[in-house]
Design a protein that fits this description.
alpha/beta, seven-stranded mixed sheet
Length: 243
């Protein structure tokens, strides 16, 4: 049976996602199925140390009716590289990714796809933080970082770090060749380079609800200091005339 060319490609970059990957995949699958669009899902694992790979293999095996692709790294490459490798293997006119934990729900995918098909080069979710006492630290870190990005890099967007980005694949693939960071700074660099290319970006508001049933990998002070150093280095790179 021939597989139709997907209208939408969704990349799920995985690293130690065993706690929630099955439930998240089911919700993403259902959301995409309800659109009626031909779609593919690319599951990219960056050498997880838990049971993620076994679960991903099981998902692919039990969903032979879906257009799924499993990509397994043989060495850890970082979040940015994992997302990029998924994009390079995608076939859809519109390609994107979202964080697997679904702290911003997959229900926003159709809105981002429609924004792209309406003329935007890139569509992202701008996270709106639902009031949760336990999320105040994440809120202030995110808002503070966004302030620094806008003022140090001259980037006009409200939420460069959102793990929820879709784009017109053929337009943005060349931008992936310019990105140098393979880790968590990938998102900031990607959006800064998009701004320099004057690509059209639409930010769609979406509720961020922190999950209490997952193990957090964020370390407030150390991560904030590391991101600030990377911001300063990248600012120097831009000033020196890097594309």
């Amino acid at each position: 049976m021939s597989v139709p060319t997907p209208r939408v490609s969704v990349v799920l970059a995985c690293y130690n996602e065993a706690e929630h990957i099955e439930r998240s995949f089911a919700e993403i699958r259902d959301t995409l199925t309800q659109t009626g669009w031909p779609f593919e899902i690319l599951l990219v694992d960056d050498v997880s140390r838990d049971a993620t790979r076994e679960i991903l293999r099981s998902i692919v095996e039990s969903h032979r009716d879906l257009d799924l692709k499993l990509i397994l790294h043989d060495r850890n490459q970082g979040r940015g590289a994992t997302v990029t490798n998924g994009f390079r293997a995608s076939r859809g006119t519109v390609a994107g990714y979202l964080d697997v934990d679904l702290e911003v729900h997959c229900r926003y995918i159709p809105s981002l796809v429609r924004a792209i098909e309406g003329g935007a080069d890139i569509a992202t979710v701008q996270r709106i933080y639902a009031f949760q006492l336990g999320s105040l630290d994440r809120y202030f870190m995110s808002r503070g970082y966004s302030f620094l990005v806008r003022h140090l890099l001259g980037v006009p967007f409200r939420d460069t770090e959102t793990g929820y980005k879709f784009f017109r694949r053929e337009t943005v693939l060349p931008l992936l060749d310019e990105n140098e960071d393979a880790g968590w700074f990938w998102d900031t660099e990607f959006m800064a380079r998009a701004a320099r290319r004057r690509l059209t970006v639409e930010e769609v508001p979406g509720a961020y609800i922190r999950r209490r049933d997952k193990t957090s990998t964020v370390s407030g002070l150390s991560d904030s200091a590391r991101y600030f150093r990377q911001l300063l280095r990248f600012r120097r790179t831009l000033k020196e005339g890097s594309p």
